[in-house]
Specification:
By secondary structure, this protein is of the alpha/beta class. It has a single domain, classed as Rossmann fold. Helices cover 48% and strands 15% of the residues. The protein has ten helices and nine strands. Helix 3 packs parallel to helix 4. The longest helix is centred in the middle third of the chain and has 29 residues. The protein is globular, with a radius of gyration of 20 Å.
Length: 284
Amino acid sequence: MSNTPRTPKTWFISGASSGFGMAFAQCALERGDNVVATARSPAKLEALLAQALERVLPLKLDVTNAADIQPAVDAALQRFGRIDYLFNNAGYGVVGAVEETPDAELRAQLDTNFFGAVAVTKAVLPVMRAQRSGAIVNISSMGGAMSYGGFGAYSASKFALEGLSEALAQEVAAFGIKVLIVEPGAFRTEFGAQALRQMPVMSPYKDVLAGIRGAMRDLDGAQPGDPAKAAQAVVRALEAEATPLRLQLGADSITAVRLHAEQLLKDLAAWEQVGLDTAIETPR
């Protein structure tokens, strides 16, 4: 066994003040790594900073504000010299029927969950390409693999992130960069209480979505997933020789994604001939 000391990695995390972001930061510190912890309110990162003053760089970063992004990346490089893992974790959810969701709310949802993650990724990619190594971890959701009534806006943002991530993975592999899409189910974070925006209820949808709105309220604080274990699972995937493109976390996510995939294959088989019959006929 080699006695060569492990070289610390540098984790750049958006939305690090709570939930998954905080869990990722804690995981990094436990491993002896460096953390660039970013949040819209850096004051919320003080407890993290107190744990390892020399290994934590707290920074203000609102991913929807382009002026925040490059300075944060530059500060990370000045302090630690490299960025090994980028965790695009900042985000929130919208709950409401499509018709209940104003265009401004839909655009804001995409600005944070999709465009914000893309902007940070573009700022970090030149660093990773120069290093010829790195990993981009995009925190999606089981709602990024399928959607449910009441979550159209949220799923739209995650579907977009997953589509871009799938292309990105193929584009950056030659530079030694990995891309990992994480699809968690319900985890014990503040997402249900602080990061869900409820749209005004329209009477036609009051009963249609009563169940999902009630479920979100009841689930808050009772989610079965452990964020610390999620962070460990993500690291295990990143350090694997064959890192998957997608990683489902939690029994709810694994079950739902499997059922969705099975239904997709079932529909594909049932309608395959109809689809094949659309080809232009070649004269004999």
